[in-house]
Amino acid sequence: MSGTDTQESGARSRTRRAILSAAASVLARDRTATLADIAVAADVGRSTLHRYFPDRDELLKAVIEDSFEVLYESLTAAALEDGPPLEAMRRLVAALVDVGDRLQFLFGDPRTLEGRESTEEPDDPQPGIALIERGQAEGVFDAEVSAAWIEHALWALVYTACEDAARGKMPRHAITATVIRTFEKGILR
Amino acid sequence: MSGTDTQESGARSRTRRAILSAAASVLARDRTATLADIAVAADVGRSTLHRYFPDRDELLKAVIEDSFEVLYESLTAAALEDGPPLEAMRRLVAALVDVGDRLQFLFGDPRTLEGRESTEEPDDPQPGIALIERGQAEGVFDAEVSAAWIEHALWALVYTACEDAARGKMPRHAITATVIRTFEKGILR
DNA sequence: GCAGTATGGGACATAAATGTCCCATAAATA
DNA sequence: TATTTATGGGACATTTATGTCCCATACTGC
User: Fold this and answer.
1) Separation between the CA of B35 and the C1’ of C17 (whole angstroms)
2) Residue of B nearest to A32 (CA)
3) pLDDT: which is higher, B82 or A4
4) Cβ of B149 and A170 within 8 Å?
């Protein structure tokens, strides 16, 4: 449940991760990318790729799974349950930005997650939602809109800022601050 | 320059529009949709589709063009130059929500617009940007972040809310109000 | 050095989407 | 009714991604 490394040794584990990482990165930018493209990006032969993931669907599933794990680790490290909601929220933003590539892959195409809505991960349903609800209960966050909407709005802003950064429209170091500013206070002055 | 209907009569014009509309709708939900899928959605034969648009690229270009026209009309009707920036901004949100489908198609995949950044439409570069800059100059909007970022943030929120609505997560009538609320004031209370 | 493992690359078959061509037919028009 | 126009559908070649197989070659640990 915690990891896929049952008894996978050295090299195999390393190339597997290289493939998964490259696939996430490439597919985030182009959902229609070829397996050959991914193999090149991962710096492995196409044969090797097929050796690890028999077909495209298997690879896709694995990348989704892996991306969720990466995302989950980042969120766990952010310790969203600790401290004032506002500060936790800022850590959340930073954590999401850190895994921007994976976010872009997971949520770039709604079809990617199709069947996964609420059937997975029975424990710890939504760390972000929990934080937002806590903030709403403490009167720190807007309670007139749903927690789900707030989370979606946050993801959308992070996603957009990462995209802007990827296209050189915004310096990478500014992502977190910009998102936090707009997300917290909106654009009115 | 103003339209593609040089002397296209009756039936042709009608099926052309049917194809464009169906293509936008289908492609918004699945960028990898087949030409056959689009033909079915438009209720025409695949041959007919090829008769109007020789190949996939031609169709894509036409759908993009058409979507921009629809978007442009909606923005023009919003008369963003008139009245206080805040009210104009709210009309802008409503206008964007109205053409949510086209937005979802145009901006759902960053690759769709690839080469189009600032080379097109020399006149009226960006109605939204102009409004935002006006608002910033008048001290109504946040001037600490770029106008481009504000516009992207707005589109992201509209896009996300439309998606939520499309999946039944939010009533359609709430889209505009929710986006405006979060966009203007953020989530802090 | 030697066995076992991991890999890259080529050859190949298959499936699917695409683009082209042609013909029969329905609809509009004169 | 006769003619033009628009269409649907089938047949076909082409292209492209995919998946499989096989072999030579590194690399690893003994």
Assistant:
1) 8
2) B32
3) B82
4) yes
A151-161 pLDDT tens trace: 999 999 999 99
What global pTM score does this model have? Answer: 0.85
Q: What is the reported pLDDT for A6? A: 42
Locate tokens 């707030």: which residue? A150
Q: In whole angstroms, what separates CA B163 from the centre of its chain?
A: 13
Task: Look at the alpha carbons of B24, B30, B35, B36 in this order and tell me if their dihedral is positive or negative.
Answer: negative
Q: What is the rounded distance in angstroms from the CA atom of residue A45 to the CA atom of residue A51?
A: 10
- Evaluate if residue B174 carries a pLDDT over 50: yes
Which two structure tokens, joined as six digits, stand for B89? 């901004």
Amino acid, res. B120: E
How far is it, in rounded angstroms, from Cα B78 to Cα B94?
Answer: 8
Per-residue flag: B9 CB under 7 A of strand D:
yes
Q: pLDDT, tens digit, for every residue of A97-152? A: 999 889 989 988 878 877 665 545 544 557 889 999 999 999 999 999 999 999 99
Chain-chain contact of B188 with A187 (C-beta, under 8 angstroms): no
Write the DSSP assignment of B118-130 as a string of letters: TTS-SSS--HHHH
Contact between B147 and B136 under an 8 Å Cβ cutoff? The reply is yes
